[in-house]
Amino acid sequence: MLGAGDSDELVSAIEALAAERKIRLPPIDPFPEQQAIYERYLLSMGLDPKDVDQIADLQRVPEQNRAMIRAALLQGILSMDKMADDELRTFLMLVRTSSTEHRASSLLRIISQPLLTICADEIASSEMSIAIGVMPMRWFNGQSTPYSGSAMCLASMGSLDLIEIFCVLFMARLKDPQYALVQMREAVEIYVNTGSVKPAEFELAQGLHDFSDYKGKNGVAVGMTTAAEQFLVAHELGHVSLRHLSDATLGATPCRELLSEPSLLSRMPWRATAKKHTAIQVIQPSHSDEYCADQWAFHTMLRASTLPDEEGKEPLYCAGATIFLGLAMIIESASRAKGIMIPDTHPSALNRLYLIQLATELHGFHEEAYIARRVCEFIEEIGACYPDFAMPPILSRDLNQVALEVFRKMGYSLDGATYITDFV
Ligand SMILES: [Zn+2]
């Protein structure tokens, strides 16, 4: 890392360059006020923010490769005047991320910005201030919980890693389908066997995927990762906006019991300081509320895809829910195959994805869902090794009944949606 002073100078230089080309860079943390609430919440849990909310610098990159990456960045700086505006914008953001102290929670808030922009009024009317942040758990899920008048929307670090692994392998699959399949199944197996997602490793897909291709395939991989993480956050925001947070019963999610051996707790940075916390308080919504939070999240993402800065990203926004729920489907099947029960209050991921697919048609986004369909192909291939794995059915009268109830609750018009209303 550069020294703090150097880093400030570099950030100013990057911002000046962007201004010269009239390129708007997003702020390093668009919602700094959330960080204060989030840190107070962590402290109230007996957790040290410095341990939980780690600096997301070049963590994945081994020391010996960092010099190489800096050289590549320098090379980029020298050829900046040849870059098109959108390419330069991505590049400058990358340089800034790799040269400043980015907290993981502020990265999460950057990707949540379009969501919070599009639903600002709905969130305001819920009378709760939002604080988005990461939790050190290596599970594949998100949580929300009220904390002194604020809604804490928390994503576990494990989810972010598994999503990243999937999206990188999705692109690597174009060159080596077998490699992608084996690596993805291994990541799922490790998670199911240990209760802990393995971190995305630097070696992953090296030679199969061009990580410096900002405009092309890596842009798609990053966009898919962002969209799946956005869906995770948006689902939690849905619980806030739909007032599940003020109405729902709180329940303790036991940290210990969720995990099979070898325990994840032994690797948690805060274990030594937070021994008394074997459970966290989270809301426990009904199945109907979970479906509604999914629908709210999906619809909010479709709306966010129309923001000027997000132009052309509809196929990515459409795919976010499919990536997240598809991974959840695989994890559920893999867990059942091992006889592991996942204590979870959510309906099955297969049912949730079926309703998302219906909503894609209902909102008129069939054409834009082509990345989601390609994601389904990979999901199906990965899941095929588990005996009870299945993709959502083309048509299910039982699930259409669930969908009807959920869509009516959400106030969606079902006029002309005979594929739902005629098949119940
Ligand atoms: Zn939920």
Describe this structure in words.
- This protein is mostly helical and 424 residues long.
- It folds into 2 domains: 1-30 and 57-101, no CATH class; 42-55 and 105-421, no CATH class.
- 56% of the residues lie in helices and 7% in strands.
- The protein is built from 17 helices and 5 strands.
- Strands 1-3-2 form a 3-stranded mixed sheet. A two-stranded antiparallel ribbon has the order 4-5.
- Strand 2 and strand 3 (150-156) form a beta hairpin.
- The N and C termini lie far apart (59 Å).
- Zinc ion binds next to helix 10 and helix 12.
- SSE run: HHHHHHHEEEHHHHEEHHHHHH
For the largest beta-sheet, the strand count, sense and barrel status come to: 3 strands, mixed
Principal-axes geometry comes out as globular
Order the strands across the largest sheet as they lie in space. Answer: 1-3-2
Ends distance: 59 Å
Q: What is the structural class?
A: mainly alpha
Low-pLDDT segments: 256-277
Fold blueprint:
Elements: H1 4-20, H2 32-44, H3 49-52, H4 63-78, H5 85-99, H6 104-118, H7 120-125, E1 129-135, E2 142-147, E3 150-156, H8 157-172, H9 177-194, H10 217-241, H11 244-247, E4 250-254, E5 279-283, H12 287-304, H13 314-337, H14 349-362, H15 370-383, H16 397-409, H17 418-421
Parallel strand pairs: 1-3
Antiparallel strand pairs: 2-3, 4-5
